């Protein structure tokens, strides 16, 4: 039996994601989980792909770019508050915060995030400076 949940975004992050972004855990169900993600101003994440989950992202603040590659399709999208996108299972992706503000967004993962082994490293689209992860 599922239970109703209510959570508020924490000030401090709960965990660093495999891509190096800050994750604040939110609610979850048997079918999906939600987190708040922050990438500090001027930072670039590590490029990864997910083995079994798909995600929906909704941007809350800051400006940035997201690179996604799936099969023969590859694109770089400019993102800011109000933009949403999907990360299909197996897609390679990387993102970066541009400007003086952190890039913040909500992520819904389906099924719920199974653990750190879910994400595997792939070749970076943008170089990641040493010490920035």
Detailed description of the structure:
The chain has 133 residues and is mainly β. It has one domain: Jelly Rolls. The protein has strands spanning 15-16, 22-28, 33-39, 48-50, 54-61, 63-70, 73-80, 84-87, 92-98, 103-110, 119-121. The strands form 2 sheets. A 6-stranded antiparallel beta sheet has the order 1-2-3-10-5-8, with no helix packed on it.
Please supply descriptive tags for the structure shown above.
mainly beta; 0% helix; Jelly Rolls; 133 residues; globular; five-stranded antiparallel sheet; six-stranded antiparallel sheet; 49% strand
Query: What's the β-strand tally?
Result: 11
CATH architecture tag = Sandwich
Across the major sheet, the strand order is 1-2-3-10-5-8
Specify the helix fraction band: under 10%
Rounded to an integer in angstroms, the radius of gyration calculated over CA atoms is 14 Å
Structural class: mainly beta
For this structure, the CATH topology is: Jelly Rolls
The number of distinct helices, counting runs of at least 4 residues, comes to 0
- Report the portion of residues in β strands: over 45%
Which word captures the global form? globular
Straight-line N-to-C gap? 39 Å
Mean pLDDT: 95
Q: Can you tell me the residue ranges where pLDDT is under 50 for at least 5 consecutive residues?
A: none
Query: Order of SSEs, N→C?
Result: EEEEEEEEEEE
């Amino acid at each position: 039996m599922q239970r109703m949940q209510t959570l508020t975004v924490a000030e401090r992050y709960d965990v660093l994601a495999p891509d190096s972004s800050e994750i604040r855990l939110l609610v979850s169900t048997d079918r999906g989980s939600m987190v708040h993600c922050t990438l500090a101003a001027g930072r670039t994440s590590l490029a990864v792909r997910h083995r079994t989950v798909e995600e929906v992202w909704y941007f809350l603040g800051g400006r940035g770019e997201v690179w996604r590659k799936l099969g023969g399709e590859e694109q770089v999208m400019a993102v800011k508050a109000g933009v949403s996108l999907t990360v299909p299972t197996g897609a390679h992706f990387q993102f970066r915060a541009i400007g003086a503000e952190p890039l913040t967004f909500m992520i819904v993962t389906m099924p719920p995030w199974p653990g750190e082994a879910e994400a595997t490293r792939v070749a970076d689209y943008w170089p990641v400076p040493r010490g920035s992860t």
